[in-house]
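User: Hi! Is it possible to get a structure for several chains at once, not just one? Here's what I have:
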Amino acid sequence: MKLALIGFGQAGGKVVDEFLAFDERTGGGFVESAIAVNSATTDLQGLERVPERNRVLVGQARVKGHGVGADNELGAAIAEADIDEIQGAIDRIPVHEIDAFLVVAGMGGGTGSGGAPVLAKHLRRIYTQPVYGLGILPGTDEGGIYTLNAARSFRTFVDEVDNLLVFDNDAWRSAGESVEGGYDRINREIVERFGLLFAAGEMDEGDHVAESVVDSSEIINTLSGGGVSTIGYASETVEIDDGLLSSLTGDDGFDEGTATNRLTSLVRKAALGRLTLPCDVASADRGLVVATGPPSRLNRKGVERGRQWLEDETGSMEIRGGDYPLPDRNEVGTIVLLSGVTDVPRIDQLQQVAIEAQETTEDVRAQADEEFASLLDTGGKLDALF
Ligand SMILES: Nc1nc2c(ncn2[C@@H]2O[C@H](COP(=O)(O)OP(=O)(O)OP(=O)(O)O)[C@@H](O)[C@H]2O)c(=O)[nH]1
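Assistant: Yes, the chains can be modeled jointly so their relative placement is included. Here is the combined structure:
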């Protein structure tokens, strides 16, 4: 499916840059336009692939290109104030060519977590295409302010987009990795999963067209209905002997039964392995299973069995399935998109943080009101004395 990508804040911009690299490397063809928005000049300068004229600096009047320092209310205020600057870049997108917008942001900082929901709301008001979010949750060790920002912004972002795809940094950290090295690896993991899904919905006419190829409407239908989505992915290397031996024996190593079993078990591995946002698979409302790899190894029975297994697992009647043939690969893979998931421990934890923060704010306010009232009272008594 064709997307207009908009990265908001540092993480958002870097992930959009990585999507562009993936799209170029794989010939995926799903990126129609790419924009990066930030309140920090250096973050915009650090990008490699987003075209310079599509890098929008916001909030110059208030923060002078220095970022908002994890203040997400300021991030939101800046986005509101400078929405016309962002719109200037959006005006260059050939909107009739795209299937959807994708707004990408880290939820823990200030610029992206504050600004992305403001932008999503604006886009939904103006355009008819769906507006999806890709929200990146902070690691739990990053500190209170990041968690609090994420807790607050998550709720708002879910409300403002047609569907929020989520990646949890916390579930993907590796011990002993530097922060920067870690992000580079994690960003590749992000685009490998989401990029493969979007590319799957973007097969050209004349590409290897099988009857069961997934198209963009299946992705859109799976995401419609809103809520939160997560992705699982599993793959396996396959031997493809299309050389001398196969021409002599007429056998290229293909066996129907093996292909079916392989695909069915890859669907299970994808759904039950590490998801971009870990959750209880049974709580998904809708799902999509996509099999990728050399056409000779994609077999309809395997995808169908995997799809049925996911139907049983989720109790949902809305599990779609299809192929994304990739002729030059020696790898068979499956992507499982789970949409409308509700049983997500990490989100419960964030909601708890938001509730506690709210209560603390209310307590502090109540205490301040009490102190103020008693001050007035004391003032009254003093007045009476004099
Ligand atoms: N996956 C991933 N996460 C990142 C990356 N960079 C930062 N993050 C996460 O994003 C959050 C911080 O958001 P940033 O995007 O750096 O902040 P910002 O939106 O630019 O806002 P300010 O820096 O506060 O102005 C942190 O919680 C990190 O977990 C990245 O390259 N990849």
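The pocket of guanosine-5'-triphosphate is lined by residues 9-11, 14, 39-40, 43, 67-70, 106, 108-112, 136, 138-139, 142, 146, 169, 183, 186-187 (CB under 6 Å). The beta strands are 3-8, 31-38, 55-57, 100-106, 131-137, 163-168, 228-237, 286-293, 319-325, 331-339.

User: Great, thank you!
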